[in-house]
């Protein structure tokens, strides 16, 4: 398989580093071996030492008494089932029983159920279904997060044309500030893998495979719909190039109408494929919650029925009760839930009592804004023309490599749109995991800052030999391909081992990644508010 090819030592290190950062708890029961194996160890330790915060979060009752093996699984991995993870595990076990469960898309819980009933079927006697679902979440998220790091590395090599920055960015992904959500029973790991792999395939010209992966990503998280913009931009770029090539000849311009029709139809088809999972899920929700008595009412266990009565949850196929969104012209349950249950909307989170949450989102907001400003300042004309103008310099010379290269433009726009939407329209504290699982820019720009401003990373061969930053080498006339040469030793470990001598900027970047990595484990696994 190309994604995990053994020919690239950098890719091997990315995968190995990711595996070590996501090591399973069962390995830790034998021996505490690897330096980065304490991800799940810490969550289990903090979950035992710190009492759970009494959060007003979804917490359905358990329908069966746990056995001793269930208690062991819960004690070791229970910290990974907090907050929204309860929704995913509940949906995987009971389906979409409550209306507000429909805010969580089906592909991830379906995958959990498939693994729990398939690969973990031999464990059904000692473990109840919930425990097997939790084990499935740990396994799948570990797998998807490692594959996402590998896909991010491959994508970076194609887009940045600088193997060093791509390598460093992929390693940083394994230390993501959203790391606890990549490990917990959340859909972020699965979405990151599908999104990064789709972007990579699209960059390679594999449009249909990229479209399929984007469509699957849209079945995992709602923001996967935004990825349709990559197809629209790709087709627009191709057509603009053809238009500039044929601009001098009327005879050549006539066939462009056919090309325009072909480009428009293929873009529309691909976008329809990306929107299809969302539309199908909204239709499913409509048939399940809207027509009272249209189908047999599901048998709801008494404890879950009592929870609905106590909390005011809307049950599926409740006789005589029609939710208000069902009567809308376009009945979309997702937007209704965001509005009615979580008060999500433009500027609704701008309250004095939410200042701590804005402070939580401040580092990723600054980093995302800085990335956009850096790119626009380095490529003002390219940004003004939306990257659709082909300049003479690009025909005669290879464009620069690294974060500021022309091909990064669409990714900067994508990240900026997500950042602005998240800051003004969402619960702002989720920005870290929202951007960390959806866009490569957070990792590319962090790697760019480290590579450009950290002398420890300029060494080649020995500690005494140093080179100028990559941008300087390119300005001096070296081929951008030289950016790809270098050793496959782990630059993140080199920075951590040299933490006393690295620059303040490097300390700030690594401090953000590692502090959020650690604080997320401490707070999230004990039901304390986090991002």
From TrEMBL:
The keyword Transferase applies. It is an enzyme of class 2 (transferase). Its main location: endoplasmic reticulum. InterPro entries: PIG-V/Gpi18. Its EC number is 2.4.1.-. GO terms for cellular component: endoplasmic reticulum membrane; mannosyltransferase complex. This is GPI mannosyltransferase 2. It comes from Pterocles burchelli.
């Amino acid at each position: 398989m190309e994604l995990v090819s053994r020919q690239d030592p950098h890719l091997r290190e990315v995968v190995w580093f990711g595996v070590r950062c996501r090591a399973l708890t069962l390995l830790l029961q034998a021996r505490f071996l690897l330096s980065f194996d304490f991800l799940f160890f810490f969550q289990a330790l903090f979950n035992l030492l710190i009492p759970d915060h009494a959060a007003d979060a979804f917490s359905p009752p358990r329908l069966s008494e746990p056995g001793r093996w269930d208690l062991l699984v819960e004690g070791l991995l229970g910290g990974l089932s907090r907050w929204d993870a309860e929704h995913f595990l509940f949906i995987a076990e009971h389906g979409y029983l409550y209306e507000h469960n429909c805010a969580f898309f089906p592909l991830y819980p379906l995958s959990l159920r498939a693994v729990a009933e398939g690969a973990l079927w031999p464990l059904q006697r000692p473990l109840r279904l919930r425990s097997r679902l939790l084990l499935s979440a740990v396994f799948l998220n570990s797998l998807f997060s490692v594959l996402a790091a590998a896909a991010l590395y491959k994508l970076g090599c194609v887009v940045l044309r600088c193997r060093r920055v791509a390598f460093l960015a992929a390693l940083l992904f394994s230390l993501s500030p959203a790391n606890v959500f990549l490990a917990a029973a959340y859909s972020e790991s699965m979405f990151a893998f599908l999104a990064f792999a789709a972007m990579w395939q699209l960059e390679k010209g594999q449009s249909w495979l990229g479209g399929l992966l984007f469509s699957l990503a849209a079945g995992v998280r709602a923001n996967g719909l935004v990825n349709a913009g990559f197809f629209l931009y790709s087709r627009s770029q191709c057509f603009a190039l053809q238009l500039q090539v044929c601009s001098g000849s009327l005879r050549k311009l006539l066939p462009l109408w056919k090309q325009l029709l072909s480009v428009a139809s293929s873009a529309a088809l691909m976008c329809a494929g990306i929107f299809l999972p969302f539309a199908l899920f909204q239709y499913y929700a409509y048939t399940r919650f809207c027509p009272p008595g249209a189908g047999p009412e599901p048998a709801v266990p008494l404890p879950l029925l009592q929870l609905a009565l106590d909390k005011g949850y809307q049950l599926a196929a409740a006789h005589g009760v029609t939710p208000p969104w069902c009567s809308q012209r376009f009945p979309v349950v997702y937007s209704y839930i965001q509005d009615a249950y979580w008060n999500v909307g433009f500027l609704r989170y701008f309250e004095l009592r939410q200042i701590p949450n804005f402070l939580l989102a401040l580092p990723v907001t600054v980093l995302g804004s800085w990335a956009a400003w850096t790119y626009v300042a380095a490529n003002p004309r390219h940004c003004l023309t939306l990257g659709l103008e082909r300049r003479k310099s690009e025909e005669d010379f290879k464009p620069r490599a690294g974060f500021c290269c022309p091909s990064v433009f669409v990714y900067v726009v994508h990240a900026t749109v997500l950042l602005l939407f998240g800051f003004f329209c969402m619960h702002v504290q989720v920005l870290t995991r929202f951007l960390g699982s959806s866009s490569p820019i957070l990792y590319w720009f962090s790697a760019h800052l480290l590579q450009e401003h950290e002398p420890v990373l300029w060494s080649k061969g020995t500690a005494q030999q140093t080179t100028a930053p990559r941008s300087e080498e390119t300005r001096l006339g070296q081929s951008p391909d030289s950016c790809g040469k270098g050793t496959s030793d782990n630059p993140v470990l080199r920075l951590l081992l040299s933490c006393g001598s690295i620059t303040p900027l490097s300390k700030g970047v690594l401090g953000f990644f590692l502090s959020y990595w650690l604080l997320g484990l401490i707070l999230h696994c004990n039901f304390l508010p986090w991002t």
